Amino acid sequence: MALDQAAANPYVDFGKGVVADAAPNVRATFIRQTYTHLAIAIYGFAALEWFYFKTFNIDALMNQLMGMRYGILGVIGLFIGASLIADRMARSAVSLSKQYLALGIYVLAQSIIFVPLLWFAQDRTLALTQGVEVSLIPAAACSTLIIFAGLTAIAWFSGQDFSFLRAGLSLGGIIIFALIVVSYFFPLQLGVWFSVGMIGFASAYILYDTSNVIRHYAPTQYVAASLALFASVALLFFYVLRLMIALSSRD
Predict the structure, then answer these.
(1) Which of 111, 125, 133, 134 sits CB 3.0–4.6 Å from 48 for a disulfide?
(2) Strand 125-127 to strand 133-135: parallel, antiparallel, or no bridges (unpaired)?
(3) What CA–CA distance (Å, rounded) separates 12 from 24?
């Protein structure tokens, strides 16, 4: 049984033991540090986006990027490369400084990939009932936090170990990446229902990552745990915002 758990746990070689087996005060400290670092990562991401839009001529940069045949695809490729490097560092590095470096690389990569979507969304509004209009970016951010809070509560209070989702999420990730790449070469429209599906995919990842935080991380791995949660939150936010942009264009 122990061998089966070790084989299913990709973080088992990172540290000695897992936080689920630690003393209550160690678990409490780990959880507090994990979610504190998650909050820091989110604020850091927001600060970078503010800096980009205040410092650079984003309109000109985006016009140049859109003029390049595979400009957006290239950005996605760079993001994936940086993400893989950050994830590998976070999972394999015992050094806390390397965990921080991995988190920093990932937040920076996410902030860059989000620029085109935020550029599209910044001047759009979503018309609601009775003539009420809302700004898309704050609306998507609030929706993301509400969904994240609800899924976190499910993972914590249900008592369910969601690590069984790993194989399905890996397969789904490969299929999704293939669809995104193909859409740049063929007239394949990834519309509203794709965004809805991706919101479900990101939600499943939040359950999976939160379950890992509870059960499968070492006590010294709180920065790596915050990176995993940040990745899921960012993915959810991306497609919630994308869905709202699509819905606003129908008004």
Answers:
(1) 111
(2) antiparallel
(3) 20
Kindly state the tokens that stand for 14. Answer: 């990172």
Q: 111 and 45 in contact (C-beta within 8 Å)? A: yes
How far is the C-alpha of 174 from the C-alpha of 125, rounded, in Å? 33
Could you tell me if residue 235 is inside a domain?
A: yes
Q: What's the whole-model pTM score?
A: 0.83
CB proximity list for 218: less than 8 A, separation 6 or greater:
11, 14, 15, 16, 17, 18, 19
Distances (CA, A) of 151 to 58, 155, 211: 34, 6, 10
SS3 label, residue 43: helix
Domain count, the chain: 1
> Does some domain include residue 5?
no
Burial class of residue 9, CB neighbours in 10 A (0-12, 13-18, 19+): middle
SS3 of 1, please? Answer: coil
**Residue range 100-153, pLDDT digits in tens:** 888 998 899 889 889 888 988 887 776 565 566 778 899 999 999 999 999 999
